[in-house]
Amino acid sequence: MTTIVLKAFSALLSYPNEELRAALPELADVIRTSPLVAPREQHGLLELIDELSRSDVLAAEENYVDLFDRGRALSLNLFEHLHGESRDRGTAMVDLKRLYETAGFELATRELPDYLPVVLEYLSRRKPGEAKDLLTDCTQILQSIATALIARRTNYAAVLQALLVIAGEQPISAADVPIRSESAESLDQNWIEQPAFGKPTMHGRQSDAI
């Protein structure tokens, strides 16, 4: 069982530039043939790929920024969901970077080690059992981001749903998640007032842009 599909997920959650758009047919092939992707999740992922391929470049980039760069609820930096801007986040970041280095990888990106596409690229180079264990450690964070994406009714939610299934969890029912149209600032305020987690469940784990 191969984890190469996690690299495809990493690409799909990255900024939708021309390079990504050119790789979409290859990503679709990986998703169609991966034993890690169940039919229901495959359908959602292929819909995302189709949307990205049909969208105007500027529109796709604007949509990405609007989703992921304007509020904590949808942040793809995992430790931000656990630690916010506290000093603990820096410590966890150092531990994660050390995990990458111990495995023989060095970050080659400006993104932080806890950036989900970086984490997924790292996991795509690890054994399936190790990849699943780390995803399981991240379950609460993945569920939180997935719920926020479903609330925005965006096809990007399919990537998080597929990750939850790989981690051994049930995907989130979209019917149980009300549509939310609040601004990013409102979403941030909700996150601050109602933190999703108590004690961190992902400690000392990190990802690398290889």
> Strand count, sense and closure of the main sheet?
none
Query: Structural class, please?
Result: mainly alpha
Helix content: 55-70%
Number of β-strand runs: 0
Spatial gap, N to C terminus: 22 Å
Order of helices and strands: HHHHHHHHHHH
Low-confidence stretches are: 183-210
Strand content: under 5%
Q: If you compute it from the alpha carbons, what radius of gyration comes out, rounded to the nearest whole angstrom? A: 16 Å
Work out the helix count. 11
Give the overall pLDDT as a whole number. 84
Structurally, the number of domains stands at 1
- 3D shape: globular
List the helices and strands and how they pair.
Blueprint: H1 4-12, H2 18-33, H3 39-54, H4 57-68, H5 78-83, H6 87-102, H7 116-123, H8 128-137, H9 139-151, H10 157-166, H11 184-193
List keywords for this structure.
0% strand, disordered C terminus, globular, mainly alpha, 210 residues
Explain what this protein looks like in three dimensions.
With 210 residues, the protein is mainly alpha-helical. It has one domain (4-193). It contains eleven helices and no strands. It has helices at 4-12, 18-33, 39-54, 57-68, 78-83, 87-102, 116-123, 128-137, 139-151, 157-166, 184-193. α1 (4-12) packs antiparallel against α2, α1 (4-12) packs antiparallel against α7 and α3 packs antiparallel against α10. The longest helix is centred in the first third of the chain and has 16 residues, at 18-33. The model is unreliable at 183-210 (pLDDT under 50).
